[in-house]
Design brief:
Helix 3 links the parallel strand 1 and strand 2. The protein is globular. The chain contains seven helices and seven strands, in the order H-H-E-H-E-H-E-H-E-H-E-H-E-E. With 177 residues, the protein is of the alpha/beta class. A seven-stranded mixed beta sheet has the order 3-2-1-4-5-7-6, sandwiched between helices. Helix 5 runs parallel beside helix 6.
């Protein structure tokens, strides 16, 4: 392995105290979910990924595929009706469900089999995305917030995280649990 200087000053490193490790299987292998031969798809979870409008569908589709690759048994893309055809044509292993409003999203989450949500990639910045986050939090689902969902909760909008939750940041976003 070769480490390259990217211009971070020594005092910054002393302040943030980064902890690094090499990403090799022994670091995560015992935590990686391996499907059981007699297991059922719902035992591996059913993720809901919220899609953006017709011109902002790509990031949500990538998140949906990533959810499958990470081990979710099922993934459903909650798509605005205007983007249904685009999303359905591009996804073969992911189900697509029409969801235009926060009320429809809440009705979708009434099905307890949907146990994880991804909100943010391409969802749009603003009140609707904040309302979707609050709806998922109220439904007590595992929730990954990324991109537009985090931006929608700028300093003036307050935090989406309840006092009984923690938010874990990673290079790609944050996870509320």
């Amino acid at each position: 392995m070769r480490v390259a200087d990217i211009g971070i000053e020594a005092q910054v490193l002393n302040e943030i105290r980064p902890q690094t490790f090499e990403n090799v299987p022994r670091a995560w292998q015992t935590s990686f979910p391996v499907p059981r031969i007699d297991g059922h798809k719902y035992a591996r979870g059913h993720a809901v990924v919220v899609s953006g409008d017709i011109v902002s569908t790509g990031a949500a589709r990538l998140s949906a595929r990533g959810s499958l690759r990470a081990g979710a048994g099922l993934v459903t893309l909650a798509s605005p009706r205007e983007a249904l055809v685009v999303n359905a044509a591009a996804l073969t292993a992911v189900m697509v469900r029409a969801v235009d409003t926060v009320v429809e999203f809440a009705e979708l989450l009434n099905d307890r089999r949907f146990n994880a949500c991804v909100i943010g990639p391409g969802a749009g910045v603003g009140g609707r995305t904040r309302d979707l986050v609050h709806t998922a939090l109220s439904a007590k689902r595992s929730l990954v917030l990324d991109a537009d969902a985090l931006t929608s909760f700028g300093r003036s909008a307050g935090s989406p995280v309840r006092s009984d939750q923690t938010i874990r940041r990673s290079a790609g976003g944050a996870h509320a649990a």
